[in-house]
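Two proteins, back to back. First:
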Amino acid sequence: MKKYGKSGAGPLCLLLAACLLLSGIEGSAATKDELEQSIKEKENAISQAQEQKDQIQANISNIQAMVDDLENTKDDLQAYVEQLDGNLAQVQSRIDELKALIEEKEAEIEETKLELEEAVAQEEAQYEAMKVRIRYSYEQGAQNYLELLLTADSFGELLNRMGYIEQMNTYDQEQLAIYVKNKELVEACKAALEEEQSVLEQAKAEVEEEEAGLETLIAEKEAQITSYQSDINNKEAAIAEYEADIAEQNATIAALEAAAEAERKQLEELNKPQATYDGGMFQMPLASYKRISDEYGYRIHPTLGVKKFHNGVDFAANSGTPIMAAYGGTVTGAGYNSSMGNYVMINHGDGLYTIYMHASALYVSSGQTVSKGETIAAVGSTGRSTGPHLHFSVRLNGDYVNPWNYLR
């Protein structure tokens, strides 16, 4: 039997070398407790994803019930429009929630993919390290450990060597436990990724269904307004109602302008700075649009069949298309009107205003300062509208003017 003295503890050196090798490979590895925490977080993520799928299913808008309920108000066009706009707002809000969920899930999926890649890489590194350790143990065998103990020169050295062997055994058990937990984390990441992907796909499918429902309601509205206004028996009443709507619009806008003017005078009296228009050109209020569906000026009304003044430019666009401030200014009004639908009115100074009508959603409020190009609303078909579009108007000193004078 080969003797090992103080100057040549061969097996001990090999044990320590193996430990150092494993420590180098495992140095960046998570602890067992950290892995258990990560597994628990993934299990919670899976549970949350399952709840989200159930919630998506439970919150599907009942479009047919909305359409059926509208039958009760068809004889009163204003009440019908207001009720249907409430339905449109409900469905649009649902679409916005789903789109926010889609963004959230896409971010979570990317994060889970990275965690899965890290867990797989760590699992492979641990596996290779354990193979090195097992190979060493197989090559040295139990006899080598016994020889290590029997060749100790003193009782103290014997105890030290017994301690090293115990540490190695403990280390092996810890690394095995970590390896097992890491495999569990890999599986948990895969399961979480699958559930998150499932939520994403369900949310995307639901957005399509809700958008189809939105189009159904808009088509119902278009059909009803067109039918009402084109019915020869309703012609005089429809024309009178249209004129009353325009008068209501003008009254609302005039009141907002009067309030803005009163504020301007107050600032003037206090020698405080006031908004002024610097003469710059406006930008288009929509980044993209299908076509101009109605121009500014006098034209034959499409359903009433009589000559009427159209006080703005209509840009046909898909529901939800961002509406941007054509120029910087202060929001004078942001609200709902049965004729204008959801609208925004911006004061640019010196009596110049822009108005944006029929929005599906508003993103600004009265008193807010906005910059040129800032998103202020989304295209819709609220109010007296027969399809998704933006009605864009410009007013100067209390009168409507041609928007193209500022857009070109």
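And the second protein:
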Amino acid sequence: MSDHLSVQKAARYGVVFLVVAAAVCFLVLKGTDVRIVWEALSKTSLTFLAVGILMAEFFHLAEGINLRILLCSCGYPVTFWQGMKYAYIGFFFSSITPSSTGGQPAQLYAMKKDGIEIAHGTLALIGELASFQIAVFFMEFMAVMALVSGKVTPSVELLVLAVLGFLLNILFITGLLSVLFCHRLKEKILGFLYGGIDRFPVKNKDKWKERLEGAFHDFQICADLIKKKPQVMGQVFLVSVCQVICWFSIPYLVCLAMGENAAGYFQVFLLQTVLFMTTALLPFPGAAGISEYAFMKLFSGVFVKNPMAAATLVNRGISFYSLLAVSAVMMIILWKYKGDGKCRNLSDGSS
């Protein structure tokens, strides 16, 4: 994919996203007194807002750290800022494309420009994503227990979405771990790709097969390295747990910023977990629309002193739109940043 085409696609997706975001903002404010909303926003504590934004930014920081850990384990001397560049690029393109389909290809493109092989970059992204989803799963399990015990009682449509999201996350994690550590599955995937090459009229079929085999071989070497060093995935998982806790704690910071005290930290945390379950796997850019709708439904008993429209705008502004703005700016700043890391010889098991 050329740089020109990539810019064109990014611009197109960006325009669509801005239209959707404007429509969502209109729907959130529809039927409310804008003056009352503005008054509530003007009284919001800037100190707690700043803390919330810092906690949100840890989402980027954690992904950058984890990608650096995993790529270093594959033999690349990746710097801190390289890892952050991949995190910012991934968040930006995941946020503006349906089902987050643009994030990983953009990250792999940036890694390739830095001299990182596609197979190794793919392994790092799968490992980071698996770690994040497993960390989320533990939070979701607590939320499911709260749903069963009646401590959290969402509407029927949100309950269905939450249960579906929980089940799909289990399947998603199973698939990711299988790709990482199941050699037989990788052989079946490779055989399937070989069959595709044989069926389609492509030139130099043997060369394409040789490239695929080499990529899968490199992928397997790095996966074996990670299996031999479980402390690597242990470090990544601990970072992911901190990442999820900080991100899911943002609504409570919003409560403090807006002077709300109707619910405690743990209850707000569980509600945010349920909200994530209802929205994470739906095919909307940045989960726009469904996130705002679910937040207004789930947190209506939490924000009792302020209009829900104001609370929704503040929460979504911190937990998503501020992250999107930071990722866009930092992506532009770091786009041309390159390290000198090249793939080391991993045949002797060094890292």
